[in-house]
Design a protein that fits this description.
Layout: E1 2-6, H1 16-19, E2 24-27, E3 43-46, H2 54-58, E4 65-68, H3 78-83, E5 87-89, H4 96-112, H5 114-122, E6 140-144, H6 148-159, E7 163-167, H7 173-178, E8 182-183, H8 186-192, E9 195-198, H9 212-215, E10 222-226, H10 235-244, E11 247-252, E12 271-273, H11 282-300, H12 316-339, E13 344-353, H13 361-372, H14 385-391, E14 395-401, E15 409-417, E16 421-429, E17 433-439, E18 442-446, E19 451-458, H15 463-473, E20 478-485, E21 491-498, H16 504-511, E22 516-523
Parallel strand pairs: 1-2, 1-3, 3-4, 4-5, 6-7, 6-9, 7-8, 9-10, 10-11, 11-12, 13-14
Antiparallel strand pairs: 13-15, 15-16, 16-17, 17-18, 19-21, 19-22, 20-21
Helix pairs in contact: 4-6, 12-13
Length: 524
């Protein structure tokens, strides 16, 4: 018999799989109400209200799984759960249709001025001419972020006879062709769009992705929607361009600060808004609850789950053996992800060394998880990483080699894009930690953690000094520096680490220096 605490309000229909199971005892109580029962709880099911902290988990010594009936897991201490061997699951695609439909409802309402016309008629007015709208048919819809939600929106746009163009740095040309959409760079996409809708996760790279600088290049009279995450569109810049009339209207379901009471965007007649309703349908709420209820039941039956956020439960001995390489390869995946800004066809990994004499499939999944983690609008983990790679037509390969390049163990990752290839090699040394020892054929040695700048340049006197001067002028202290070259006067690289990320302004100044061929900002 397993005891499951349902700590937040979930209707019986959503708990169906658990209610029908003979070996499950459900406690539908808040954490405070169930205080005396916590020591016997095997699983806890929450929405967003209950905070599953390390302290709470310490009061549940039998806890095996935490289930979030929704996408986000901000209210769950995932790291603490992982340390305790507790699996965390969620429902990543339960609200896909809900959000896609809400986006389309907002789009139609924006183009036809439905909220404004409704308010007017409620005031006893009949102003037909004031609310002349614009048809969707024949318009060019730009989708920024082509994940599950972006894909569903594209399907619906085609039904409305719209032309669909998309920007997604990880969408290949072949995949775009199958989806019947046109893949474009962001700067070109913005100049062609009549309507723009964003569907990316909010990360350091996507924060302010649409801003005054690039939105000014849009057609005068463009419409913009955000039903994804507040902050992807710079709100100050959006407000200014709406006032100027360069942007004709905006539909917003999300804001940087929520509740958005007092947000000056809401003062504009050209803005329509809803209070973060993308996932708020009866069907979506039922879907996410049913999905995680089934996940809990599956896990307690001893079977693998499909939407685990953290490392699946494994033996303590194997976990201790895997853990150093698990963290290393995930960091390698993240580095490659931040350096390859194009569609990827293939990711291959080679393991070498006696210390890697276990099933390395978990490491390969960790690599793919690290590669995708900050780029998609759904959580990526070791369970669903390969499925997501397959969905995006990315071939994943794994092999064992005897070539350790002089190290007791090493992991080599090769990523092949549409125009270029990127290679990275790492190793783990006891009492020394994880090290990156090669980048694109250049010998290097640095610990992959924190904020980095990876620069490729021509090996000439003064290059390093000019980079250092720009950083010094901006009062930036270099924590570590590693350099590498293949031959004097040829290609060379430098990897600099900092206590905090560099600004866009610094990057632009460094990038404009003579002899700099490319640079990449990396955050781990």
């Amino acid at each position: 018999m397993f005891r499951i605490l349902v700590a937040d309000a979930i209707k019986p229909e959503g708990l169906g799989p658990l209610l029908d199971a003979p070996n499950i005892e459900l406690l539908q109580k808040t954490v405070e109400e169930a205080e005396m029962d916590l020591k016997d709880v095997d699983a806890i099911l929450v929405r967003s209200a209950t905070k599953v902290t390390e302290d709470l988990m310490s009061k549940m010594p039998n806890l095996k799984i935490v289930a979030r009936a929704g996408v986000g897991v901000d209210n769950i201490d995932v790291q603490a759960a992982t340390r305790r061997g507790v699996v965390v699951v969620n429902a990543p695609d339960g609200n896909t249709i809900s959000t896609a439909e809400h986006t389309f409802a907002m789009m139609a309402s924006l183009m036809r001025h439905i909220p404004q016309a409704y308010f007017s008629i409620k005031q006893g007015k009949w102003q037909r001419a004031a609310f002349t709208g614009t048809e969707l048919r024949g318009k060019t819809l730009a989708i920024v972020g082509m994940g599950r939600i972006g894909g569903e929106i594209a399907k619906r746009a085609k039904a409305f006879e719209m032309d669909v163009i998309v920007f997604d740095p990880f969408l290949t040309a072949d995949r775009a062709k199958k989806l019947n959409v046109t893949l474009l760079p962001l700067d070109e996409l913005l100049t062609k769009a009549d309507i723009i809708t964003v569907h990316t996760p909010l990360t350091s790279e996507t924060k302010g992705l649409l801003n005054k600088s690039n939105m000014q290049t849009c057609k005068k009279g463009v419409y913009i929607l955000n039903c994804a995450r507040g902050g992807i569109i710079d709100e100050e810049d959006l407000y200014e361009l709406l006032l100027e009339g360069h942007i004709a209207g905006a539909a917003l379901d999300v804001f940087v600060e929520e509740p958005a009471v007092g947000n000056k965007l809401l003062e504009l007649d050209t803005v329509i808004a809803t209070p973060h309703l993308g996932a708020s349908t009866k069907e979506a709420q039922l879907n996410v609850a049913t999905q995680v209820a089934q996940e809990v039941l599956t896990f307690l039956a001893g079977n693998p789950v499909s939407n685990s956020i953290n490392l699946p439960a494994i033996s303590k001995e194997l976990f201790e053996q895997v853990q150093p390489y698990y963290q290393l390869i995930k960091q390698m995946g993240s580095i490659v992800s931040q350096c390859v800004k194009e569609g990827v066809h293939e990711i291959s990994v080679t393991y070498a060394g006696e210390n890697l004499n276990f099933d390395t499939s978990l490491l390969t999944k960790s690599l793919i998880s690290g590669f995708f983690s900050s780029k998609l609008d759904v959580p990526v983990n070791e369970v669903n990483a390969l499925v997501i790679a397959k969905e995006r037509s990315i071939t994943v390969g794994e092999k064992i080699s005897s070539e350790t390049f002089g190290y007791s163990n090493c992991i080599t990752v090769t990523v092949k894009g549409e125009k270029r290839q990127f290679d990275i090699r790492g190793t783990y040394v006891n009492n020394y930690g994880s090290r990156i020892v090669s980048l694109n054929g250049f010998d290097i040695d640095f610990h992959p953690d924190g904020n980095f700048l990876y620069i490729q340049h021509t090996d000439r006197p003064g290059v390093i000094g000019r980079v250092g001067k720009i950083l010094g002028d901006h009062d930036v202290n270099i924590a570590t520096m590693q350099v590498g070259r293949k031959q004097a006067g040829g290609e060379a690289i430098m990897v600099l680490s900092f206590d905090k990320p560099l600004t866009d302004d610094m990057l632009q100044k460094i990038n404009h220096l003579d002899d700099i061929t490319s640079l990449y900002r990396i955050s781990l």
